[in-house]
Write a structure and sequence with these properties.
The protein is built from 4 helices and 21 strands. By secondary structure, it is mainly beta. The strands form 3 sheets. Strands 1, 2, 3, 4, 5, 6, 7, 8, 10, 11, 13 and 14 form a 12-stranded mixed sheet that branches.
């Protein structure tokens, strides 16, 4: 039992004083993802038999980082200790071990989180307001080569088949300028999830009605008004939609005063929608309108006197 024996152990390395690097605007990452160290410990046989990996700790103090010229890789000295026995009982190999790390500039950005949806709501319904009800500001830190690529941050809620308002907690996703998702595994963020809500509204198809103002030029008459689309689909709360029979465009939009030819125009009906409603299709906002104006024509007929009959003389 008095004989000294040797055993080999492999344990994870804890990185200490990381603030030292971040306060200097730097970001570090273990080279190749390797975060372990293998070492030899010596002690009496009876002591070694009681030891396992969990009885040792390995710490790399980032304040002691050593910058190696040329290869872009830095190293941090590792201090290995036995938590179960003191150094007089267990001797750890005196060979200095290092944790190899790469160091680059630290990037810090903040982005507004945009709310989005996926899926299609139930037939007869339409999507209303979609918004984030928790904080929508995301603060991100990490290697500058990654943070510099972040263009947008999107939180998406699934509304497929929904017929009433929905709320969910989702993870924001980072995208670059080309719309590609960015790997966030090396980044730190102030929030990991956001709560997002989507309003589901009812819809109704309603007719459009156009009025005209003024009198056309002398000798002309207004024949008809044609427009497309004839009706539009609006969305809103049920009690609001029930009160809407049609959408009337006021007469001052089509002023025909002195017109001697057809009038063609595009009318944006958005501002004429009833309060509490909006269009399901944005394209329906622009309505193509044509007011047909024709000259008044006269024709003279000669009727033989014999064709007349006198009554009630």
């Amino acid at each position: 039992d008095a004989l000294v024996k040797h055993a080999q152990y492999t344990i994870s390395v804890t990185q200490d004083n990381m603030d030292y690097l971040t306060s200097n605007g730097k970001y570090s990452e273990t080279l190749g993802g390797k975060n372990t160290v293998t070492f030899t410990a010596s002690a009496k046989r009876s002591i070694l038999e009681k030891l396992s990996n969990t009885d040792f700790t390995a710490v790399a103090d980032m304040e002691k980082i050593e910058y190696v010229e040329g290869d872009g890789v830095c190293r941090v000295p590792i201090t290995i200790t036995c938590s179960k026995y003191n150094s007089n009982t267990v001797t750890i190999s005196s060979k200095q071990q290092y944790l190899d790390v790469t160091v680059e500039d630290l990037g810090n950005v903040q982005k507004k989180i945009t709310a989005s949806t996926e899926g299609t709501v139930m037939d007869g319904c339409a999507l209303g307001d979609v918004s984030i009800v928790t904080s929508n500001l995301l603060k991100i830190s990490g290697p500058s080569c990654v943070t510099s690529q972040i263009s947008t941050v999107v939180a998406t809620i699934n509304v497929d088949g929904m017929s009433s308002d929905v709320t969910d907690t989702v993870v924001p996703v980072l995208y670059d300028a080309d719309g590609n998702e960015i790997d966030a595994s090396k980044l730190k963020m102030n929030i990991n999830t956001v709560t997002i809500t989507a309003q589901i509204l009812n819809t109704k198809d309603v007719d459009l009605s156009f009025q005209t103002k003024g009198t056309v030029a002398s000798g002309y008459t207004l024949k008809e008004i044609t427009y497309s689309p004839k009706k539009v689909r609006i969305k809103g709360e049920t009690d609001v939609l029930n009160k809407v029979a049609k959408i009337t465009i006021p007469d001052d939009v089509l002023d025909m005063s002195g017109a001697a030819e057809d009038v063609e125009t595009t009318v944006d009906i958005t501002s004429y929608l009833p309060d509490g409603t909006s269009l399901v299709l944005a394209a329906d906002a622009k309505v193509e309108v044509k007011v047909k104006v024709e000259p008044i024509t006269t024709k003279t007929f000669e009727v033989d006197a014999s064709a007349f009959t006198l009554e009630n003389i």
